[in-house]
């Protein structure tokens, strides 16, 4: 009987090692994903805010009333994800963190399933602009994370704790402070790491170009005809072109497969006469300062004054200066008069302006189509 105890001990020891290895692997995978997801959101709080606003607008109803809280929700989401990830990576409060992560995933997984089924927005924004994935990919990712969290809960008993509860709690609070601080810094001084298409060094015309072999959008057109009081849908291949007994009612075009989309698209600038001057701006060999204010109703008056002061400094130095906005002519006139501005406004798409720079206003320097610099209004 004594001879049989040794293999059992070895088996238990190997099982314990396996459980410990599984615990470490699960912790590090979960930690890495949560840290990455939280960090890329934390450095771009306005980007996450815009994504929340897109969701609320798409859902409508009571959700639309949450639009005013989008910024705070963006910071809360990034901070929660970053804190969960850092706790997992450092082994701080792993069991508690696993339960928090489980609750988080039980909320997010059904939401992402609904988003994948209804497709209210083109991408979930779960990894910000650093890594864009489809809504279905997001759902599958959440299923994987949910399974990993559940398995982790069954193995935390094998965890070796190195820190006291007090030290662990202090670290968790520090992680929360770090997450909030990163977002506040990025909100006031732009993203420390720019994942946007309009990052410094990008040549805008090249980023707008379509490769020769690029896939194009594929559409399907359906024709609706009526005969004897009943309607039927036809395609281009079988619609009754030569049958006068069918009466044409309507047609609809559906995007079947999206083709290649260049990193920068919809970049167009119009003057006050509604002339497209984009080519002139991008081909200008000198320096052009673009003061970007996507929505004048949300633009900081203090920021507008900073822009006016900057404009007066450079207007006699043979430098081109243009203010870009998506606001209406009446809003431009009222804003100009209220803030006593002397520079000229030009029009551009609001989404494009929000993508160009995460500030309102923000300043971008362009030379011969290449982005030379970007600044928050508090930094110029």
Q: What's the layout of helices and strands?
A:
Layout lengths: L1 H41 L2 H15 L10 H21 L3 H25 L16 H19 L11 H25 L14 H5 L9 E10 L2 E5 L12 E11 L20 H6 L3 E6 L8 H14 L5 E6 L3 H11 L5 E3 L2 H7 L5 E6 L2 E7 L4
Parallel strand pairs: 4-5, 5-6
Antiparallel strand pairs: 1-2, 1-3, 4-7, 7-8
Care to describe what's here?
- It is a single chain.
- By secondary structure, this protein is an alpha/beta fold.
- A 5-stranded mixed beta sheet has the order 6-5-4-7-8, sandwiched between helices. It has a 3-stranded antiparallel beta sheet with strand order 2-1-3, with no helix packed on it.
- It has 3 domains: 2-189, no CATH class; 218-257, no CATH class; 264-379, 3-Layer(aba) Sandwich (Glutaredoxin).
- The protein has helices at residues 2-42, 45-59, 70-90, 94-118, 135-153, 165-189, 204-208, 278-283, 301-314, 329-339, 350-356; strands at 218-227, 230-234, 247-257, 287-292, 320-325, 345-347, 362-367, 370-376.
- The protein is built from 11 helices and 8 strands.
- Helix 1 (2-42) packs antiparallel against helix 3 (70-90), helix 3 packs across helix 6 (165-189) and helix 4 runs antiparallel to helix 5.
- Strand 1 and strand 2 form a beta hairpin.
Keywords:
single chain; 380 residues; alpha/beta; Glutaredoxin; 3 domains; five-stranded mixed beta sheet; three-stranded antiparallel beta sheet; 11 helices; 14% strand; flat
